[in-house]
Every structure is written in structure tokens, then in C-alpha cells.
Amino acid sequence: MAFSPIQPSERKILTVQELTARLRSDLERTFSDLWVAGEVANLKIPSSGHVYFTLKDAASQIKGVIFRSHGRFLRFTPKEGQLVLIRGHLTLYEAKGEYQIIVDYIEPRGAGALQAAFEALKEKLRGDGLFDPGRKRPIPPLPRRIGLITSSTGAALQDLMKVLKRTELPLSILIYPVAVQGEGAADEIARALDGLNQRSRRSSGERVDLLILARGGGSLEDLWAFNEEIVARAIARSEIPVLSAVGHETDTTIADFVADLRAPTPSVAAEIVVRNAGEMLGRFYSLNAALVETIRARIQADRNHLQYEIRLLADPVRRIGQFHDRVDHLAIRLRQSFGRLLSERRAKLVHHQQGLTHLNPIDRLQALRRRLTELNLNLTQEGSDLILQRRRLLQSQMVQLNILSPLNILDRGYSITRKVPSREVVREADAVALRDQIEITLHRGKLICSVEEKTTPEDVS
Hints:
Among the domains are: 16-110, CATH 2.40.50.140; 141-281, Hypothetical protein af1403, domain 2 (Rossmann fold), CATH 3.40.50; 410-460, no CATH class. It is 48% helix and 18% strand. The chain contains 12 helices and 13 strands. The protein has helices at residues 16-30, 68-71, 113-127, 155-164, 185-202, 229-237, 254-258, 266-313, 316-358, 361-404, 406-411, 457-460, and strands spanning 34-44, 51-56, 61-66, 83-93, 98-108, 145-150, 172-177, 210-215, 242-246, 261-262, 416-419, 437-441, 446-450. A 5-stranded mixed beta barrel has the order 1-2-3-5-4. It has a 5-stranded parallel sheet with strand order 7-6-8-9-10, sandwiched between helices. Heterooligomer composed of large and small subunits. Belongs to the XseA family. Keywords: Cytoplasm, Exonuclease, Hydrolase, Nuclease. One of its GO terms (biological process) is DNA catabolic process.
């Protein structure tokens, strides 16, 4: 059988990019939604926030990635060597020609998977500060309107209403029915929290003072809606204090850790509100009784004082006589005080007159004039002495300066010889050569000469 080669016109040649693009399109279309189980290996979480890892079993492996934009909504972050169950879709990374799975959902696999997811989310929210005691607010002691977020058909609502109706205070109860388990329950609870906050902000007439998040007991799966991150975040951003009352006393949810206060059961949550209101009401009654007693005592005291004044007015002649006696007594004391004050002022006047005699300004002025004349004479004498002393010193220094002056030396027949044109002083014969021009400075005038002959000390000897 003869082999017939394909003609060039019949070939379909693909570039590498075209081939990988086709493969990527086929992978994404064929494996758009799949579940895969395996072990996490080569886990990397760079600063970008994306999570890169390899999902493997005993025979094969595939690369996986959780993008940061989607990872925020996952309640579980995988760890190295952990068995996980992943839901996602396949794609092809064209730059390297590698296929990988893009993760949409991930959960631990095997026994205790839900508990592991619970602990992982708990640690994540703790790191974000949602459990910090400093951000929790006190439960209002006397709430006027309470919002109940719970199932409209559950026993939790009946337990709450049974206790809340016992209080004497006029509480306004606002029931916001939600699903408390199953698909979409967490979203409903989060929307209820946000909705009641928005309603409370709209007007003071719709203000809600306290939110109670309630549900009866159940398994971990039944209570899982209260372990979702979306519910925890909604509780954390609530402007209204939140009281969590989920499950029985032994049940603990993420909502309990984030809420401002946890009650073991819905009934206990209502008891807390009623007890706080009862304590406030009791304090009000106590203060009211104290106020009434104080008013009664004040009225009695005023009544007694009024009766005393009436008794005084019953005998006005005696009262006027008492006032006359009082006026006479005050007049005597006034005369005595005035006499003492007059004597003291006279004594001070005599003392001041004596002082003024010693401080006569004319005498002080004459003394100052005499002192000024004396100081003027002293200043004139000291000035004359100083001028004479300075003049003698100047004459002495002029004599010394004249002795040391070069002109005085030249006057005695000496001269100064300099080389021309450097004007360097000539101190010995060897400093010049024959025919050099020299300048001789005399006491009066200068001479320009030419060296015709010189004699050194060696020549003289």
C-alpha cells in the first residue's frame, strides 16, 4: 500500500496560542462545575491574597487557586496536608500550558469537617477583632422597642413572648421572621439585622433599642446558619446592641462570640431584659418614695415655721417692744464703736504730722543742693588730675617713640639701603652683585647708585 502525503493546501496548522485557546474553551465548557476531593500540598498565600495549592491523591495532582475576591466569602482556608472537598471549574493557564481548577467552594473532608470549619472561621474572625470585649456595647437597661429575629413558627418565639409579657413596662415588640436553618437562612438573618438597623436610623419614632437573635436547640448542622461569616459581619456592624440566644446552654455559635451579650437560651434572654427592666422599675419606685418623703418633710417644716410666725404676729405690741430694745442696744454699740474709731484716727493724724515735719521738702532740697555742689567740686578736681596724668604719660611715650624711630637713627648719619627694583633691604655686601642698582634712603632724600666695588668681612680680614 503506497503512502500519499497530505498536500500543503490541505493541512490545518495551529499556533501554540490557538491550540491552548481551543483547549481552554473545551475545558471550561466541559468542566464548568465539578466536585473534586484530594489532599492539599504546596500551599502558598502571597501578599496578593490569592491562595495557590496543589490538590493530589496517590496517583495524580492538579493545581488549584482561590482568588482573593472570592476567598473573602469562604468560611474555610485550607492547610498543608489537609483533606478537602472542592467545588469549582477547570481552566487552562495559557502562559504555561497548565490546566488548573478555580475554587468556588471548599470544605474539610472527613470526620469533624463542620467543626473544623467552625474553628477556622472562629480564628479568622478573632484575628479581625470581632470578638474583642472593647467593641461590645452594654445591653440597654430599659429598652422601649425590642426587635426579635427568629422563626415565626419556632418554640423560641413562644418562649420569648411568654417571659416578656410578664413585665409591667410598656415594651414594644417588633418581630422579624426569618429562616433559622437550611439553604439561604444565613442571608435572611443578615438582611434582617441590616434592615432593622436601617429602619431604626430612619426616624426616632421607629428607633429599635435592642435586637434579640433567637433559635431553639439543635445539632451543629441545624445551627450552622449562625456560624456563617455573613451573619457574624452583620452582627458586628449593627448599630443596635445584639443579644444572642441561639440553641441550648451547651450550644455555642459564632454569633454568640460576636454579639454584645450571649444568653444560654431564648427564655434566659427574655429574663435578662425583664430583670433589667424590673431593677430599673424598682429603682424608680425607690426614688419616687424617697422624693415623696422629702416633699412631706419639707411641707411639715414649712408648716412649723408658718405657725411660729403666726404666734409672733398674735402680740404685735410685745414684738415692737423687742424691736425698740434691739435698736437701743445697737445705738449704744454704734456710739462706742464710733468713739473708738475717732480716737484711733486722731492718734494716726498726730503720728503723720510728726513724720511730715521730719520729711520737710525744703530741708531735703537744701541738703541735696549742698551734696550736689560737693560732688561737682570733686568731679572737677578728679578731671583735672586725670588730664594731667594722661598728658604726662603721652609725653613719656612720645619720647620713647622718638628714640625708637628710624628717622631719628637716620638723623645721626645712618642710611637704609634697598635693592632695586625688589626694594629688599641690604644687610650685607654679599646680598648684591656688581652693577646692581641700589636705593639709599638718607635722613633727607634718597640716592640711586650702582655697585662698582664691594668688600666682604673675609676681604677685610
